């Protein structure tokens, strides 16, 4: 999915705009409050009931709000003596994003915010009106990277990567990403790039600024490509599955990396513990005309005793590196989650190592920016697993950005390492002793 163009006709911003904004309110509450995530929120009944243009506006508004949430809250706090009820805060957040990010005419944003407040907390209409008018008189700073992430995460990034890198990576939070595509036949990216108005990235992914429903784009129905962030495409390239080899994808759903391994000709087993998410893997494989063995199981306790030439562990993680498409992940993350996810990753790493053939390769990756899920995880794994050694990534290998390569040959891909941004990932490749 990607953000769709924001319509700005008068009908949409005024009369037709209240239902769209009420739906945006539901979606924002679902994305933040119930921790359901923006993707799940997109199936919200309030959105489904809207006309396509209003739905596009509601989605764009929520994404704009989430991308500037920290800075918007900072601006609101400076004008609120005591915090109003949560629902009023959400209305104010949406209105600020309209005025200063989407550039909606201020009167439309204020009028609709007051109308929304009338529906849910009528006595606070005056407060909403006054706060918004104050901000319009003295526009707030919404672009400061230090304000875009929750402070506890920003401080962790400063400690892990230094002040300059933390600022540069956080600046990407505010940017709307393009859409990256992986090709079934990666040897001919130029053939499709014109049709998709795309540029070819190092490694062969295509990047397009097109908007709208990807299912209508050239080559989708023919199964020539799938949506996959440029960084997310690196780990499977490093594993380099070959025809005649067996490959195990231990946390496979929704299947981007399984598709890469199958397209490379390996005989792939795609395992995930979530049956509904595996259904998406099967659908993706069918559209691409590819095959894999599908297994619903826990990757740690799967009783199968086979070993594989190539094993990929794209472990469950805090997903803080995916903030370009999931800015809600930053606000859903809690410090305690990182420690409990690290414990799961450690258990799954041991399982992945057991399932790798002697002489075989294993790639571990997480779409997290947190060292406990990346560097720390790999150091502890190497300490307790004498049969595994790092197989250093070569400069530029698999389309990896030069700035991401660490001295030990692992990759710490930060979101600003690619022009136009990319998902943050940590990637390590191992070889098992014979
Ligand atoms: C980061 S996502 C994988 C993305 C996928 N590799 C791709 O490229 O499309 C992590 C996946 O791990 C799965 N998962 C979490 N815990 C698991 C476990 N114990 N065993 C197997 N799968 C698990 C989740 O259901 C989720 O689909």
Describe, in short, the structure shown.
This protein has helices at residues 10-13, 17-32, 37-41, 45-48, 52-67, 69-77, 86-100, 106-120, 125-137, 151-161, 163-171, 189-193, 234-239, 256-263, 275-288, 327-332, 335-354, 375-384, and strands at residues 179-183, 198-200, 206-208, 225-227, 246-249, 267-272, 293-296, 308-314, 356-366, 388-390, 411-413, 425-432.
Can you offer a commentary on this structure?
With 434 residues, this protein is α/β, with parallel strands linked by helices. The protein folds into two domains: 10-143, N-utilizing Substance Protein B Homolog, Chain A (Orthogonal Bundle); 229-432, Rossmann fold (3-Layer(aba) Sandwich), CATH 3.40.50. The chain contains 18 helices and twelve strands. It has helices at residues 10-13, 17-32, 37-41, 45-48, 52-67, 69-77, 86-100, 106-120, 125-137, 151-161, 163-171, 189-193, 234-239, 256-263, 275-288, 327-332, 335-354, 375-384; strands spanning 179-183, 198-200, 206-208, 225-227, 246-249, 267-272, 293-296, 308-314, 356-366, 388-390, 411-413, 425-432. The strands form two sheets. Strands 5, 6, 7, 8, 9, 10, 11 and 12 form an eight-stranded mixed β-sheet that branches. Strands 2-3-1-4 form a four-stranded antiparallel β-sheet. Helix 8 (106-120) packs antiparallel against helix 9 (125-137) and helix 10 packs across helix 11. The protein is globular and about 75 Å long. It starts with 9 loop residues before the first helix and ends with a strand. Residues 1-15 have low confidence and may be disordered. The protein binds S-adenosylmethionine. S-adenosylmethionine binds next to helix 14.
């Amino acid at each position: 999915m990607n953000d769709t163009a924001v319509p700005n006709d008068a009908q949409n911003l005024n009369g037709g705009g209240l239902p769209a904004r009420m739906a945006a309110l539901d979606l924002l509450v679902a994305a933040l409050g119930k921790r359901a995530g923006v993707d799940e929120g997109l199936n919200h009944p309030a959105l489904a009931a809207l006309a396509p243009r209003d739905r596009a506006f509601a989605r764009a508004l929520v994404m704009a709000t989430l991308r500037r949430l920290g800075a918007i809250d900072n601006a609101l706090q400076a004008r609120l003596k005591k915090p109003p009820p949560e629902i009023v805060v959400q209305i104010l957040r949406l209105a600020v994003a309209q005025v200063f990010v989407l550039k909606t005419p201020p009167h439309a944003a204020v009028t609709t915010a007051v109308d929304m407040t009338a529906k849910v907390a009528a006595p606070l209409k005056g407060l909403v009106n006054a706060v918004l008018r104050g901000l319009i008189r003295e526009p707030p700073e919404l672009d400061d990277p230090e304000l875009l992430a929750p402070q506890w995460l920003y401080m962790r990034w400063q400690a892990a990567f230094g002040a300059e890198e933390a600022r540069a990576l956080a600046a990407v939070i505010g940017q709307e990403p393009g859409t990256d595509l992986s090709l079934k036949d990666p040897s001919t990216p130029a053939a499709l790039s014109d049709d998709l108005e795309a540029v070819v990235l190092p490694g062969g992914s295509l990047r397009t600024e097109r908007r709208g429903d990807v299912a209508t784009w050239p080559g989708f129905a023919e199964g020539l490509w799938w949506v996959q962030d440029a960084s997310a495409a690196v780990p499977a390239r490093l594993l380099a599955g070959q025809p005649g080899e067996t490959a195990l994808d231990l946390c496979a759903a929704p299947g981007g990396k399984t598709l890469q391994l199958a397209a490379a000709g390996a005989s792939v087993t795609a395992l995930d513990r979530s049956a509904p998410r595996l259904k998406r893997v099967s659908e993706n494989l069918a559209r691409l005309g590819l095959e894999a063995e599908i297994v619903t199981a826990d990757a740690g306790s799967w009783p199968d005793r086979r070993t594989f030439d190539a094993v990929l562990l794209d472990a469950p993680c805090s997903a803080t590196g995916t903030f370009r498409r999931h800015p809600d992940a930053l606000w859903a993350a809690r410090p305690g989650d990182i420690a409990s996810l690290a414990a799961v990753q450690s258990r799954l790493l041991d399982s992945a190592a057991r399932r790798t053939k002697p002489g075989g390769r294993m790639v571990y990756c997480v779409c997290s920016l947190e060292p406990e899920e990346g560097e720390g995880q790999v150091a502890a794994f190497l300490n307790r697993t004498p049969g595994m050694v790092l197989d250093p990534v070569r400069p530029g290998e698999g389309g990896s950005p030069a700035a991401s390569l660490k001295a030990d040959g692992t990759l710490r891909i930060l979101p600003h390492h690619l022009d136009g941004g990319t998902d943050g990932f940590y990637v390590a490749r191992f070889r098992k002793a014979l």
